[in-house]
Structures are given as C-alpha cells and as structure tokens.
Amino acid sequence: MESEYKLLSGAMVTLALATATLVVLPHMQLSDVPPSEGLKPYTEQQLRGRQVYIEMGCVYCHSQQPRSQSQAPDFQRGWGRAPVAGDYYYDTPHLLGTMRTGPDLFNIGARQPSVDWNLGHLYNPRAYVPGSNMPSFPFMFKLKDKAEPGDKVVNLPPSFAPVGKVVVATPEALDLVEYLIGLDHTYPVKPGVLLPELPQQADAEGAKQ
C-alpha cells in the first residue's frame, strides 16, 4: 500500500511540475504582451473566413510560424521574419500548425494579395502551381451558365475553365480568401519575445503556393 501512495504522489508531483512548466509559466510570461504595432484586428468577414479555414482543416497542412534565419531557410523561401508573440494577439484559437505539407501562410497576403489568384487556387491548385498536392475545393464554388448581378466570377486559366460555364465563388470562398489576403505580417517589430519553435516541422513543398 505504501508503494502505491508513493507512486500516486510521484505522479501528482510530475503532473504539477509539467502543468507549471507548460501552462502556468508561459501564461504569466505572455499574458500582458500587447499587439504588435501595425497589427490590425480582423474584420467580420476575415473572422468568418478564419472559421472556414478552421473547419476546412487548413491548419493540418499549413503553419503560420516562420522560423528564425538561424534555424531554417524560411526567410529565403519568402515566408518573412520570425514572428513575435504580439503578432498573434487577435488569434483565438491560435493556428500555428506543426505540419508543412504546404507552405507557411503567415504572410500569404503579402506574397499573393490577388483575390482572383486565391479563388482560382482554391478551385484548382494545379492551375497555378503545377504538381501541387493541395486538394481542390470545387464545392466552394458554383457552376452557372451565366453570371448574375453580384456574382464574383473566378477567372481561371483557359485550359482549366469549364466549357460553356462560369465559375462563381460562394460567400464561404470569398470569406476564406479575405482572411488569407489579410495574413500580412510584413510590418517591422521591435525586439521582443519570440515564439518558441515547435519540433518536427516538415519542410514545405515550395516558397509560394
């Protein structure tokens, strides 16, 4: 019985130390961090797009945390500087990601600010990035014989456009693209608390997608 008490006590102490190290101390360190200068709050449309991003599982293939130049060639890939804690001030939940089946999206709005490009890329990634392994999302679009007033027509490359039809973006696709082009953290930041690197991050398929 005494050994069982010792085992239980040891487990409780280990759990308490782990909680203090991984939860309490980081919260104390980052709870008062202000937003980075130049960081803007999300608009209502961007928040809706962010929810679509979560529901579509984009975080499983894309990270939003470029690593520092001393740790990885992310800056040379065009993904931007390493983030600081204040860059994520408005992010709840955080969408840091741990996998890079596709490129990091921390600054996709700076690399690809075109609404038309992002919509077409969602409809068929291989129309813009040959060999891309990103899935297509045609269900986020409608095929129509003729565009109606207020429709956002997707201008696809001719060889990928459906014959005799127009591709129209749904509100969900427009919200998602608005969120993506809003991911622009190219503003300068003062030296501060850098985001800790997560282990086992996979290399990306390319600097742009």
UniProtKB/TrEMBL annotation:
InterPro entries: Cyt_c-like_dom, Cyt_c-like_dom_sf, Cyt_c_oxidase_monohaem-su/FixO. Residues 44-184 form the Cytochrome c domain. Keywords: Heme, Iron, Metal-binding. It holds the Pfam family FixO. GO terms for molecular function: electron transfer activity; heme binding; metal ion binding. This is Cbb3-type cytochrome c oxidase subunit II.
